[in-house]
Amino acid sequence: MAQLTARTVLSTISKRTLIPTAIAGRRGLATEASPEDYGYYPDPLEHATGREKKMLLARLAGDDRYEPKVYYRAESSTKERPNLVPSHFPDRIIGCMCEF
């Protein structure tokens, strides 16, 4: 008899705890946030300062320091008229993928 009573009480308690979760599980979910409700994303350039802002402005101007720059060899390059490759240092190491 005690086992039957315990089973009845436990099954009643477990049914009552599942009801609120089942109701909450039926609600609809938003698929996308409306910019009018939450606002728009700020522009990173407006938020950036210092070195980060200089880097973003340089990237917008087309000078990305991590993008390799390709300089093509002129057809009429000689020792007197060399191909100039800009550098910040007095010595340079230049790799040439030339076909001779």
TrEMBL record:
Q: Which Pfam families match?
A: COX5B (PF01215)
User: Which InterPro entries does this one have?
Assistant: Cyt_c_oxidase_su5b (IPR002124), Cyt_c_oxidase_su5b_sf (IPR036972)
**Recorded GO MF terms:** metal ion binding
Which UniProt keywords are present, listed alphabetically? Metal-binding, Zinc
GO terms for CC? mitochondrial envelope; respiratory chain complex IV
The keyword tRNA processing is annotated on this UniProt entry: no
Which GO BP terms apply? Answer: mitochondrial electron transport, cytochrome c to oxygen
UniProt xrefs under PROSITE patterns: COX5B_2
Binding-site residues for Zn(2+), renumbered to this chain = 96, 98
Looking up PANTHER family in the UniProt record yields: CYTOCHROME C OXIDASE SUBUNIT 5B, ISOFORM A-RELATED, CYTOCHROME C OXIDASE SUBUNIT 5B, MITOCHONDRIAL
What is the recorded name of this protein? Uncharacterized protein
UniProt source species: Strongylus vulgaris
